[in-house]
Amino acid sequence: MAGVRDIDKKAREAYWLETTRFTWLIVILWFVSWVGPLVLHSWLNKFVVFGFPLSYWFEAQGSLAFFIVLIVWYAIKMNKLDQKYGVAEEV
Amino acid sequence: MSWGRIFSIYTGSFIVFTILLAILEYAGAIGKTGIGYTFLIVTIGVYALIGVLSRTAKPDQYYVAGRGVPAFFNGMATGADWMSAASFISMAGALYATGFDGLAYVTGWTGGYVLLAVYLAPYLRKFGAYTIPDFLALRYGGNAARVVGLLMAIGASFTYLIAQITGVGIIMGRFLGFDFNVGAFVGLAGILVCSMLGGMRAVTWTQVAQYIILIIAYITPVAMLSYKHFGVPLPEFTYGRVLQDITAIETQLGVQKLWVDMVPGGMLNWFALCFCMMVGTAGLPHILMRYYTTPSVREARESVGWSLFFIFLLYFTAPSYAAFAKWTVLKDVVGKKITELPEWVHKWGDTIDGVANNKLGLFDIVDKNKDGILQLGDLVIKSTDFVVLATPEIAGLPYVITGLVMAGGLAAALSTADGLLLTISNALSHDLYYKIIDPHASIVRRLTAARLLLVVAAVAGAYVATFRINIIVAVVAYAFALAGSGFFPALVMGIFWKRANKQGAIAGMIAGFMTALILLVLGRNWGIYILGVKEIGAGVFGVPVGFIVIWVVSLMFPPPDQQTQDLVEEVRYPKGTTMKLAGIE
After folding, report:
1. CATH topology of domain B3-324+398-581
2. Of B107, B113, B312, the CB nearest to A59
3. Contacts of B469 (CB under 8 A, 6+ apart)
C-alpha cells in the first residue's frame, strides 16, 4: 500500500492549501447562514413568505437546508480535489 | 440480497403491520393495551433479531463494523444514534413553550454537522482508529492524552445514557402503565440484546432499523393533522398559515411577545446556546465514532451529508408540531367553556377543573377566575411532552397511531442508548484495559472484556436512572458544553496544526472542559453569568479557551517528533493507510 511519501510534495502542499481555503469558505458561509438571520431578526421577521416570518423561517428550515447543501458541496468538491492532485484512495 | 432491498422490505412490512393493527382496532378485535404490547414486543423483537444475527468474534467487526457501512446507511444509523428520547418527545414541546427562542436547538443540533463534515469526519476516517481516545493517544504521544480523553468520553456519555434509560422508563410508564423501574430494566434488556453480541456491527444495523421506525412514527401524526386542515400531508410547508393565525390570535389577545419573535435582548443567549449545541455535536464521541465505520474517506464525507439529511427530516418537522399544537390550544381550547373542551384535553389532562382525570396526564385545567371559560393561563402545563404525545388524538387518529408514536419514542431512546453504551464500554475495554492495563491481551480476552464491561455499564446506567435524579436531565444539555469545550479544540488542532503537542493538547482539553464546568456550576447554583450568558451556553467560552490554551502551551514546549508530524501529514490525504504506518493495528 502506497504511503503519502509517494505523492509529490508540491502536489501535497497545493492540495492542502486548496483544502484549507475551501474549508474556511464553508465555515464562513455556515456562520453567516445562521448568525445572519439571528442578528437581523427584527427586520427579517417583518417579511412574511408563505406565512413564515423570514427570520423564523431561516432558523427553522432555511439554514438547515443550507447546511445540507454546504456538506454536499464540500463532499463533491473534495472528491474532485483528491483526483486533481492524485491523492485519492486506491480502490 | 442487498442492504437496500432488505430495508425496503422491512419498511414495507412495518407499514403493512401498522395498517393491519389499525384494521384490528377498527374491528374491535384489539384494545389499547393490546396495541401497546404488540408494538413493544414486535419492535424490540426485530432489534433483538438483528442484534443476534450480527454477532461477531472479530475485533474489527465489533469495534468499527468492519469499516464496511455504506455512506447512506451510516447516515441513517447516525440519525438514530443522534436523535434521542429528548429530540423525539420533548423538543417540539420546548418549541411550543418558547417559539422562536427554542429554534436555537433546531439550528444548533443540525449545524454542528457542517463542522463535523469539514473538520473531523474525513480525517478521523483516514486515521482509522477504533475510538476517539485512540486518536488523542497517537496524535499527542501517549497514554496521558488517552486517559484525559477516556474520562471525558465516559463522563459525557454516561450522563447521556442515564437520560435515555430514564426516557425509556417514562415512555413505558405512560403507554403501558409499567412501574418506572420495571420499564427502565425492560429497556435495558432491549439495549443489551442489540449491542452485546455484535458490538458496532449489530448496533449499526439495529440503528438503521430504528431510524426507519422513528421517522415514520414522528412524521405520520402531524402529516395527518396537516392533511385534515389543509388537504396536504406536508406540515413543514402548511404551518406557515398556522403561524399567521397564531400571530393574529396573539395580537387579538394582547400577548406582548409574539410566538414567532425573539424574547427582547435574547440574541446573545440564542447565539451562545446554538453555538454550544453545534460544537458539542462535533465533539460527542458516540457520533464521531460512527465515521470510523465507512469504507473510505470519500464515503465518510458523503455520509455526513446523509446523516444531516436524515436528521433534518425530523428537525424541520418539529416546529410544525409545536405550531399546530399552539394553534389548536389558542383556537379550540382558549375561550371555550370548561364543560365543552375537546376530547383530547380529557385524555391528557391530569385534573380538569379540580376533578381528577388521568393520573398520567400532562396538564391541569384550572378555572382561576371561576367564570367557566378557559383563559390562556388556565391551562397549566406540567410537561410540554403533550405536544407530540397528544397530536394523534388532536388529529382524530385511531389509537394505533399513538402506539406508533410510542414505538418511535422507544426506538429513538434505545438507538441513542446503544451508541452511548458502546462508546463507554469501548473506552473501558479498548482504551483502558487493552491499551493501558494489558497490551498483550488476546483477541478473545479483549472481546470478552468488552462484552462484560458493556453489561456492567448498562446495569450501572439503569441503576442510577432508578434514582430519578432531576439534575440528570439538565446535565444532558450540559454534556454539549463539556464535550464541545473538551474535545473539539484538541481534535481540530490535532489535524490542522502540526505544531500542536502533547502538553498543549492536555492543557487545552482540561482548560476547556474546566472552563465550561466551572461556568455551569456557577450559573446553576449561584446564578453567576458572564456577559449574561446562561450556563447552558457555557461552551461559547469553553471552546475558545480550549483553542487558545492549546496554542499558547504548545508554543511553550518543543514541537512533536517527526513520526507524529508524519502521522498528521498522512491523515490529511485520503491516499495510503495510516494505522499500518504507525504500526498500530
Report:
1. Sodium/glucose cotransporter (1.20.1730)
2. B107
3. none
